[in-house]
Amino acid sequence: MVRLTLELIAKSRSHFQKRSGISFLEYLRTLTHLHFSGRNIEDIGDLSQCRNLTVLYLYDNQITHIRNLNFSSNLTHLFLQNNNIAHMDDLANLQKLSKLYLGGNEIAVVEGLEKLSELTELHLESQRLPPGQKLLFDPRSLLSLADSLCVLNINRNNIDDIGDLAALRRLEKLYAADNKLQNMEGLEDVFTRWPGLLEMDLSGNPVCKTPKYRDRLIVACKRLVVLDDRDINEITRRFLINWKASKEANKKKKNKQTHHDDDGTFRIFFLNK
Question: Which keywords are on file for this protein (predicted)?
């Protein structure tokens, strides 16, 4: 088993050997970035001497568990994509974490984020899930991220509903391509809860075949500038919003007229009696 340890760091040509003139322990105390991607690492050992670590690159390995990171209270970026992680453990102490990359793992439930009040980006794309299973979200984690999370990547996770994500009221970018979303009305309801949404990708979902799909989302998301990797023209947006307002006004006028006509018909019928 390949384990990330202080000994492995000491042997790494890309780390300690480049910092001659100081002791190994002194080097560990000054270490802020640790690069160990694509090394067939299966486990994270005791790195508690690296207390000033802010960025940890461990993507493209064979890691099965997130552990031994309790020491890293200064960590802001954690790259763990393309490993074999099934559970989101040992994250509670990473209270300065800003960006978390966990795409390409085996995570079935997004959880354990209740203490990460500074998390702005969460990347969970392409989880390797059993056939028919979809990525789920613990409501407690979503509520904890409501005032911080700005970017969410959930591409390719068999997701058929994002109603629970409405709690993420500060969301600015949503990447949810190649899922199973198909309820346009449900999506419109969620998007109205995200007033700051700027960029969204829903390509590859069944909902994209809904008539007027793009027009309806442009109207629902007032600040959206990119939809499905295509820029939104401001003139087009204004036209669609005005068109919808005019259509709703005409509908109300027609309903009001129908109501008056019904009352008149009733009165004439009553008098004839």
Answer: Leucine-rich repeat, Repeat
Q: Confidence class of residue 272 from pLDDT cuts 50, 70 and 90?
A: very low
- Provide the token pair at 272: 């004839």
> Pseudo-torsion of CA 14, 125, 86, 118, nearest 10°?
70
Helix (H) or strand (E) holding 10: helix 6-11
Instruction: Tell me the whole-structure pTM to 2 decimals.
Output: 0.87
List, as one string, the DSSP characters of 239-267: HHHHHHHHHHHHHHHHHHHHHHHHHHHHH
Residue with tokens 């005005």: 242
Please report the pLDDT score of residue 234 as a whole number. 86
Q: Dig out the tokens for 36 from the structure.
A: 């160990």
Tokens 């780390």 locate to 15
pLDDT at 139: 97
Are 196 and 224 in contact by the 8 Å Cβ rule? The answer is no
Distance, in Å, from the CA atom of 225 to the CA atom of 200, rounded to the nearest integer, reads 9
The answer to whether the beta carbons of residues 221 and 215 sit under 8 Å apart is no
Q: Which domains does the chain have, with CATH numbers?
A: 3-245 (3.80.10.10)
Backbone angles phi, psi at 137, to 5 degrees: -125, 130
Three-state secondary structure call for residue 189: helix
The answer to whether 79 and 37 are in contact (CB under 8 A) is: yes
CA 126, 130, 136, 138 torsion-angle sign: negative
Contacts 24+ apart (CB under 8 A), 59-68: 59/83, 59/101, 61/36, 61/37, 62/2, 65/89, 65/90, 66/90, 66/91, 67/43, 68/44
Q: What are the tens digits of pLDDT across the range 155-192? A: 999 999 999 999 999 999 999 999 999 999 999 999 99
Q: How many helices (H) and strands (E) does the chain have?
A: 6, 14
